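stuck on this one:
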Amino acid sequence: MTHIDQNSIFYHIYPLGACGAPHQNDFQSEPQPRLRQILGWLDHIQSLGANAIYLGPVFESSTHGYDTADYYHVDRRLGTRSDLSALSHEMHERGMHLVLDGVFNHVGRNFWAFRDLLENRWNSPYKDWFAGLNFEQRSPYGDPFSYQAWNGHFDLIKLNLANLAVQEHLFNAIAMWKEEFQIDGIRLDAADSLSFDFMRALRDFSNKLDPDLWLMGEVIHGDYRNWANPQMLHATTNYELYKSLYSSFNDGNFFELAHSLNRQFGQSGIYSHLNTLYHFADNHDVSRIASQLNDQSHLYPLYALLFSLPGLSSVYYGSEFGFEAHKQSDDWNLRPAFDLPRLQEEQHGNDLRAWISRLALIRQNSPALKYGTYQTLHTAAKQLAFLRTEGDSRVIVLVNSATEEVQIDLQLPGMGGWRFTDQLNNGQTYISQSDGQLKLSLFPRTALFLLVTEYR
């Protein structure tokens, strides 16, 4: 099976929420095999065109999964290691990839080594495992020491990743994930808080473990090349594109999106070599895209853009049914239970299943959309057109966010008398004039994927 590359289309699941787990772990109950629910979702996920799953936190934690208690045990609220193995086995039998959340920057207060520190204090062999440990102060929890917390959250204790024993513990966990679950990649939580030295050591380790193991970091701000490079990670999340997508629709300003795309992927684009940047319309940390957009009919052209740009496309579970939710303090409303049988029986105001499936199929069959270069052809406040090219494969993508039909004249030098077929809608054909001019109409809130089917 091939490794994660531009052929990969992701489906993102937050398992503690999607599988209906309790919000608190009592660390006493018998494991409940909730993960096995996902086995019944695989047909649906594949019907959307997805061939990879990014599975959020699955290892033993106190509450939301990002407060790890044990990297070597599946959270009892989700099941056991055998349950995760069964899911991984079935996915790989289907030719799908599995990416797990690697929460290495910090742990929870129930992390076994931190519990030892609380009990044994100075005498704990793990006192050097935690960043900023200071026995001269107390923590906000009243502990007889203070420590460095992640982002001011003292229920999340920052690990001392320069400690070789900590690195060994984490890397041995990864080796177990690879051997037992056959993982294809790791999404590094809070990668923009991890030290570069740690990520270089991680890349060295993963290269020896499996050169194809994909490392993708959660990075919100900054130049993604600082994290994604041959010495560290293969890719990062593309938060710049996420913001540009929804705000360009809401503000009627495709100039913002065009600027980002040219900067990232144009002829001199700074990320044109980072071919697996991770694109998303929403995720477990941000408002659902159906709630983010002022006009929900823009969901259709927005997803058309998401699936036609350089990089990897992803769908967050439930958004194919038009799930709505605004971000709140604890984020659980962004991570609801996923009752697929009920959802498949109900009517949905924004049912995107068929649309996403069509987009994914077109992308998978188009070398241009998977591997091609990016070139902006036309930018207006509410219209955008660009060309993707890979060898003889060419696709022109056009988007109109306006509430009215508009006429567009594209100038296509060297493409005079070419025939184009709309792959996304009704298969209508267009022929450019001898000078390369292509005139066409765009219906309101729509997108076209024009495939070059004949050229001279």
